[in-house]
Design a protein that fits this description.
Low-confidence stretches of chain B: none
Strand order of the largest sheet of chain A: 2-3
Largest sheet of chain A: 2 strands, antiparallel
Mean pLDDT of chain B: 96
Radius of gyration of chain A: 17 Å
Shape of chain B: globular
Helix content of chain A: 40-55%
Shape of chain A: globular
Strand content of chain A: 5-15%
Order of helices and strands of chain B: HE
CATH topology of chain A: Serine Threonine Protein Phosphatase 5, Tetratricopeptide repeat
Distance between the termini of chain A: 48 Å
Distance between the termini of chain B: 24 Å
Helix content of chain B: 25-40%
Number of helices of chain A: 7
Number of domains of chain A: 1
Mean pLDDT of chain A: 96
Structural class of chain A: mainly alpha
Order of helices and strands of chain A: HEHEEHHHHH
Oligomer: heterodimer
Number of strands of chain A: 3
CATH architecture of chain A: Alpha Horseshoe
Largest interface: A-B, 40 and 25 residues
Largest sheet of chain B: none
Chain lengths: 152, 32
Protein backbone atom coordinates (compact mmCIF):
# COMPACT_ATOMS: atom_id res chain seq x y z
CA UNK A 1 0.00 0.00 0.00
CA UNK A 2 2.86 2.39 0.83
CA UNK A 3 4.65 1.86 -2.46
CA UNK A 4 1.62 2.37 -4.70
CA UNK A 5 -1.68 3.49 -3.21
CA UNK A 6 -0.57 5.78 -0.40
CA UNK A 7 1.72 7.87 -2.61
CA UNK A 8 -0.99 8.50 -5.20
CA UNK A 9 -1.95 12.20 -5.17
CA UNK A 10 -5.69 11.50 -5.55
CA UNK A 11 -5.62 8.99 -2.70
CA UNK A 12 -3.69 11.42 -0.50
CA UNK A 13 -6.19 14.22 -1.13
CA UNK A 14 -9.21 11.96 -0.69
CA UNK A 15 -8.04 10.46 2.58
CA UNK A 16 -6.82 13.72 4.10
CA UNK A 17 -9.97 15.61 3.08
CA UNK A 18 -12.70 13.13 3.93
CA UNK A 19 -11.43 10.84 6.70
CA UNK A 20 -9.22 10.73 9.76
CA UNK A 21 -6.29 8.51 8.72
CA UNK A 22 -5.13 6.27 11.55
CA UNK A 23 -2.25 3.83 11.20
CA UNK A 24 -1.74 1.06 13.71
CA UNK A 25 0.72 -1.84 13.62
CA UNK A 26 -1.19 -5.09 13.24
CA UNK A 27 0.91 -6.54 16.06
CA UNK A 28 -0.46 -3.98 18.54
CA UNK A 29 -1.49 -6.19 21.44
CA UNK A 30 -4.50 -4.15 22.51
CA UNK A 31 -5.88 -2.87 19.21
CA UNK A 32 -4.91 -5.89 17.13
CA UNK A 33 -6.90 -8.01 19.53
CA UNK A 34 -9.77 -5.55 19.87
CA UNK A 35 -10.32 -5.48 16.10
CA UNK A 36 -9.38 -9.15 15.56
CA UNK A 37 -6.66 -8.38 13.03
CA UNK A 38 -5.52 -11.62 11.39
CA UNK A 39 -3.88 -10.41 8.19
CA UNK A 40 -2.47 -7.27 6.65
CA UNK A 41 -3.42 -4.92 5.30
CA UNK A 42 -6.74 -4.83 7.11
CA UNK A 43 -8.53 -1.56 6.40
CA UNK A 44 -11.37 -0.45 8.64
CA UNK A 45 -13.81 2.42 8.72
CA UNK A 46 -14.50 3.35 12.35
CA UNK A 47 -16.81 5.87 13.92
CA UNK A 48 -15.56 8.40 16.43
CA UNK A 49 -16.23 5.94 19.27
CA UNK A 50 -14.08 3.30 17.61
CA UNK A 51 -16.99 1.13 16.45
CA UNK A 52 -16.16 -0.82 13.30
CA UNK A 53 -18.44 0.10 10.40
CA UNK A 54 -16.66 -1.49 7.43
CA UNK A 55 -13.80 -3.89 6.90
CA UNK A 56 -11.77 -4.92 3.92
CA UNK A 57 -8.70 -7.06 3.57
CA UNK A 58 -5.81 -7.10 1.14
CA UNK A 59 -4.09 -4.77 -1.28
CA UNK A 60 -5.90 -2.11 -3.27
CA UNK A 61 -4.43 -0.15 -6.17
CA UNK A 62 -5.19 3.59 -6.09
CA UNK A 63 -8.07 3.36 -8.55
CA UNK A 64 -9.80 0.82 -6.29
CA UNK A 65 -8.89 2.21 -2.88
CA UNK A 66 -10.94 5.39 -3.23
CA UNK A 67 -14.09 3.51 -4.35
CA UNK A 68 -13.57 1.08 -1.49
CA UNK A 69 -13.39 3.89 1.03
CA UNK A 70 -16.42 5.55 -0.56
CA UNK A 71 -18.29 2.27 -0.30
CA UNK A 72 -17.29 2.01 3.35
CA UNK A 73 -18.48 5.53 4.05
CA UNK A 74 -21.71 4.85 2.16
CA UNK A 75 -22.39 1.66 4.08
CA UNK A 76 -21.69 3.42 7.35
CA UNK A 77 -24.27 6.07 6.49
CA UNK A 78 -26.72 3.43 5.21
CA UNK A 79 -26.57 1.63 8.54
CA UNK A 80 -27.05 4.74 10.70
CA UNK A 81 -29.51 5.00 8.85
CA UNK A 82 -28.79 8.17 6.84
CA UNK A 83 -29.65 6.90 3.37
CA UNK A 84 -29.57 10.32 1.73
CA UNK A 85 -25.96 10.76 2.79
CA UNK A 86 -25.23 7.17 1.80
CA UNK A 87 -26.42 7.86 -1.75
CA UNK A 88 -23.95 10.72 -2.05
CA UNK A 89 -21.12 8.23 -1.61
CA UNK A 90 -22.67 5.57 -3.85
CA UNK A 91 -23.32 8.17 -6.56
CA UNK A 92 -19.73 9.30 -6.42
CA UNK A 93 -18.52 5.76 -7.02
CA UNK A 94 -20.82 5.45 -10.02
CA UNK A 95 -19.98 8.86 -11.45
CA UNK A 96 -16.24 8.95 -10.82
CA UNK A 97 -15.28 5.25 -10.80
CA UNK A 98 -17.83 3.46 -12.99
CA UNK A 99 -15.35 0.73 -13.98
CA UNK A 100 -14.41 -0.07 -10.39
CA UNK A 101 -15.05 -3.63 -9.26
CA UNK A 102 -17.07 -2.07 -6.44
CA UNK A 103 -19.45 -0.17 -8.74
CA UNK A 104 -22.03 -2.98 -9.01
CA UNK A 105 -22.43 -3.09 -5.22
CA UNK A 106 -22.83 0.69 -5.26
CA UNK A 107 -25.60 0.33 -7.88
CA UNK A 108 -27.38 -2.16 -5.63
CA UNK A 109 -27.09 -0.19 -2.40
CA UNK A 110 -27.91 3.07 -4.13
CA UNK A 111 -31.15 1.65 -5.48
CA UNK A 112 -32.06 0.01 -2.20
CA UNK A 113 -31.44 3.25 -0.32
CA UNK A 114 -33.64 5.16 -2.74
CA UNK A 115 -36.37 2.52 -2.54
CA UNK A 116 -36.45 2.62 1.26
CA UNK A 117 -36.72 6.40 1.18
CA UNK A 118 -39.34 6.61 -1.59
CA UNK A 119 -41.11 3.22 -1.55
CA UNK A 120 -41.00 3.49 -5.34
CA UNK A 121 -40.35 0.03 -6.74
CA UNK A 122 -38.89 1.55 -9.88
CA UNK A 123 -35.75 2.07 -7.83
CA UNK A 124 -35.50 -1.71 -7.46
CA UNK A 125 -36.26 -2.26 -11.13
CA UNK A 126 -33.58 0.31 -11.86
CA UNK A 127 -31.03 -1.74 -9.94
CA UNK A 128 -31.67 -4.74 -12.15
CA UNK A 129 -31.68 -2.73 -15.36
CA UNK A 130 -28.47 -0.87 -14.57
CA UNK A 131 -26.65 -4.02 -13.51
CA UNK A 132 -27.89 -5.95 -16.54
CA UNK A 133 -26.79 -3.17 -18.86
CA UNK A 134 -23.48 -2.09 -17.35
CA UNK A 135 -22.34 -5.01 -15.18
CA UNK A 136 -23.86 -8.19 -16.68
CA UNK A 137 -21.13 -10.41 -15.22
CA UNK A 138 -21.48 -9.10 -11.68
CA UNK A 139 -22.71 -11.34 -8.88
CA UNK A 140 -24.84 -8.37 -7.81
CA UNK A 141 -27.00 -8.93 -10.88
CA UNK A 142 -27.92 -12.33 -9.45
CA UNK A 143 -28.89 -10.72 -6.15
CA UNK A 144 -31.04 -8.22 -8.01
CA UNK A 145 -32.72 -10.83 -10.19
CA UNK A 146 -36.08 -10.79 -8.32
CA UNK A 147 -36.45 -7.09 -9.09
CA UNK A 148 -36.89 -7.73 -12.82
CA UNK A 149 -40.22 -9.35 -11.92
CA UNK A 150 -41.43 -5.99 -10.62
CA UNK A 151 -41.47 -4.53 -14.13
CA UNK A 152 -44.96 -3.61 -15.30
CA UNK B 1 5.80 16.21 -1.22
CA UNK B 2 2.20 15.65 -0.05
CA UNK B 3 1.47 12.61 2.05
CA UNK B 4 -1.33 11.08 4.04
CA UNK B 5 -1.49 12.75 7.45
CA UNK B 6 -1.45 9.52 9.41
CA UNK B 7 -2.22 9.62 13.10
CA UNK B 8 -0.59 6.82 15.05
CA UNK B 9 -2.36 7.36 18.38
CA UNK B 10 -5.72 5.63 18.65
CA UNK B 11 -7.12 8.04 21.22
CA UNK B 12 -5.88 11.03 19.22
CA UNK B 13 -7.62 9.59 16.17
CA UNK B 14 -10.91 9.21 18.03
CA UNK B 15 -10.65 12.74 19.42
CA UNK B 16 -9.91 14.19 15.99
CA UNK B 17 -12.81 12.25 14.44
CA UNK B 18 -15.15 13.68 17.07
CA UNK B 19 -13.82 17.21 16.63
CA UNK B 20 -14.06 17.13 12.83
CA UNK B 21 -17.21 14.97 12.64
CA UNK B 22 -15.50 12.48 10.33
CA UNK B 23 -15.13 8.74 10.13
CA UNK B 24 -11.77 7.09 10.72
CA UNK B 25 -9.83 5.20 8.08
CA UNK B 26 -7.77 2.72 10.10
CA UNK B 27 -4.96 0.86 8.37
CA UNK B 28 -3.67 -2.08 10.37
CA UNK B 29 -0.35 -2.74 8.71
CA UNK B 30 2.75 -4.87 8.92
CA UNK B 31 5.83 -2.61 9.06
CA UNK B 32 8.20 -5.39 7.98
Amino acid sequence: MDAVAYINPEVISFVNDTLIPLRIEASDKVLGSKYKIKWTPTLLILDADGAELYRTLGFYPPQELIPSLLLGQGKAKFNLPDRVAACVHFDRILNDFPRSSLAPEAVYLNGVSRYIESHDVMNLVGIYDRLAQDYPDSSWLIRADPYRLLKK
Amino acid sequence: MPQINWITSYTEGLDKAKAENKLIFADFFNPN
